[in-house]
Sequence to fold (194 residues):
Amino acid sequence: MDEIRWELIECGTKLFSEKGYKNTKVKDVTDEACISVGTFYNYFDSKEELFLDVYIKKHDKAKKELLKLFEEEKPPLEIIKDAVYKFLNMMQSDPILRAFFNPIIHEKYRRSLDLQKKKSQLNYAYELFAPKLKKWQKEGKINTEVDIELLLAVIDSVFYILLHKEDIGEEFFPELIDFLVDSILCKMDKNFYN
Fold:
């Protein structure tokens, strides 16, 4: 990666974490990186594009952390449950990951995210977790009837519920997440159809 682009991503990461998305201006990032605003636009079309790269970098790091859980010597359903809750905690505690689930910011990105980048991110999650899930299916440790792609999409949907936390109601939210995770795990249980 180009050194200036890398520096902009690093400075963006720092400032988005400290000041938040809304309060971080392109000028703040360029001042932090000691470059001109014009140079910024040689690398990014907008603050939104920079934020998306920062978000993807953080998201990739989080996925790699989750992958470590899949190597633990625990029952598969316990590992999956731990991974879902760990990622939910990351999404809610990290200011950059959390900002992506602000409905206004998310909608802006959903519309602007180029399809190729979106597909590569989805494929990345699939490539990361699918082999272990397929192995567990083959070993009979999880339900062999569950389609892995569907399973990953359903698990991913749990995180998108964060966009509607206020609509659902804060008082119901923790129980709703528990209910959904337990429902997923129930369906994944190797004894579900017995």
User: Anything to note?
Assistant: Residues 1-44 form a domain with the Arc Repressor Mutant, subunit A fold (CATH 1.10.10.60).
